[in-house]
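Example 3.2
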Amino acid sequence: HLNIELYRYTATDSLDLDIQPNYVRLNLGHKIFQLRLDEEVRPDSCTARRSQTTGFLLLTLPKEEPISSVSTANQPEGRPAEPAVVKPGAPSGNYLEVSSKPRLDFSKICDADDDDIPDLEVVE
């Protein structure tokens, strides 16, 4: 989940949100917020909700399922695979978690040789 704190009276129709597997970009008037994601997400399954009381924008970003390299041939014939035990109240791990108190190192936001993330565009 990613919570973006916007002003309460900002018009929702003035927001332009672009979610890609590697980054999230929010255009708000002449300001651009772009965040590179450490893990790939599924853009078609993402949701964006705006709070009516605070105006905050909550993004739910489900992670892309990794391709499993585990073979079922190694399983014994008579024993099925044991289900994973999930503790109540524990995060499920299916969504990309962004810390509420991030420790950002601005020198490592984007790699200089990373070509799959487009440059910021000038909005006039």
